[in-house]
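Title: Prediction job returns without error message
Component: structure pipeline
Severity: low
Priority: P3
Assignee: unassigned

Description:
Job completed but the reporter wants confirmation the result is attached to the right record. Sequence as submitted:
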Amino acid sequence: MPPNSSHHASACVSEAEDAVAELRAALAANGLRLPSLSLDLASVARESPCPHVTLGGCSPELAARLAAVLRRKAVVA
């Protein structure tokens, strides 16, 4: 399907929304919340949307907690 078709654009936005929801749920399962987690509106508003996810800012405490969760969950190869 051509990347500029409306169906492709709709699928890309839907996939990005799903990814945001999955990340929000995974963070919540670990007691974490990124207040600004969302789709980047400018990337969605383009003629051929190529959505980006905005993680946003957070406090140093939250960044340290997020790093700790990621370290605990990291797969050691």
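Comment from assignee: result matches the submitted record. The longest helix spans residues 6-29.
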